[in-house]
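Example record for the data management plan.
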Amino acid sequence: MRVLLVGAGGVGAAAVGIAARRDFYEAFVVADYDLERARTAVAGHPGFTAAQVDASSAAAVAALCREHAITHVLNAVDPRFVMPIFDGAYQAGADYLDMAMSLSHPHPDEPFRRTGVKLGDEQFAAAGRWLDAGRLALVGMGVEPGLSDVFARYAADHLFSRIDEIGIRDGGNLVVAGYDFAPSFSVWTTIEECLNPPVIWEAGRGWFTTEPLSEPEIFDFPGGIGEVECVHVEHEEVLLIPRWVDAKRVTFKYGLGKEFIDVLKTLHKLGLDRTAPVRVGGVSVSPRDVVAACLPDPAGLGDKMTGSTCAGTLVTGTGPDGRPRSVYLYHVVDNAWSMREYGSQAVVWQTAVNPVVALELLATGAWRGAGVLGPEAFDAVPFLDLLTAYGSPWQLREQ
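Corresponding structural encoding:
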C-alpha cells in the first residue's frame, strides 16, 4: 500500500503520528498547499515524504498520485475540496478515503422540510464508474461519520433483532484555557454542519429536513463528561446508515451546549456564516473565512485544553431475546492522554485514528470492496478489534 495523505493540518498531522507506529504501508506521502506544513507533519518520521499540492485541482492530485505510484488517497482537508481529491484519485487509478463527504445545498423553496442536494450526493452519483473500475471510495471514515457508522453496523449484526432508532450523540467537556470561545475542530466545517438544515431519515418517508439546532435534549455522556444539551445538526451518518442498516429512524444530535449554540445563532443573524464573498474596501472576502481567521487554530490548542470528547451511537429497538433494548456504543478520548501519547488534541486525534485503522484493514484484506461505500458496508468486528489494538478501546453502555 502506498498512501497519499492530502492535508497536513490538525487531523492530517495526527494521522501521521498514528500511522508512524504501524507498518502496513510501503510509502506514505503527506501533501499540503503549504509545503512547510507538510514538512513539519512528517518531521521525525522516517519513511514519510512531504509534498506540495493544490487540493482544489483534480489534475494536480492525480499527477502527484502518479508521481509516487499511490494506491490509496486519504483526504484530510475540509469538505470544500472533497470532489477534486475524489476525482483526482479516480483519474490516477487509486482508491480513496475521506472523513467528510461532498457538500450539500438546501432545497431552494422548502429548506426546512425537503432535502436539496444531500451530503455525498455528488460522490454517490459516481458510484457506478468506481464499481466498474474495481476501485473503492470509502466515504465518511472519520469518527463521526466513521466510527459511529461502524457502531451502527455492529449493533444491527450483534445486538438487535429489530432497530427502531439509531441516533448519533456527540459531546464533550473540553475547556480551552485563555479563550472565551475556541472550537476544538475546524470552525468552517462546524458552521457548515450546524447551520445547514439538519437531515432526518424515517422508514416510509425517506430523508427530510428540519430547523437547525432544533429539538434540544439533555444527554448524559460517559467518561466523566456528564449532561450536555444536544440538538439536531446536518451530518453524514443520516445519509449513510439507512443505505446499509435497517432502522425505522436515523438522527444526529450534537452536544454543543447552550453557549456554543448562542454563538452560532448570532453568527447566522449577522450573516457571518455565509461563504459568498462580500466587498470590504477594495477586497472580496468570505465572512465565514474571516470568522475562521479570527479564531485560534484548533490543532494548536491541545496544551491549553482539558477534558474529554465522546463519540457514540445510541440504538433502541428489540434485542435478540425479543425484549426492548437501548444501548449506547461509544469511544472516549481524554485530551491529557492524546497529548501525552501523540502530541495531538483529543478531537483531531479521535478523528484521525479511524481512517488509519481502515487503511490497515484494507491493506491486510480484512476489508474489501468496490464502488462508493460507507463504513456500514463492512464487517464491524475487525475494525473494532483493531481500534482496541491501537490502544484506544470502545465501550458499550446499556441505557
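Summary line stored alongside the record: The two ends are 41 Å apart (CA to CA).
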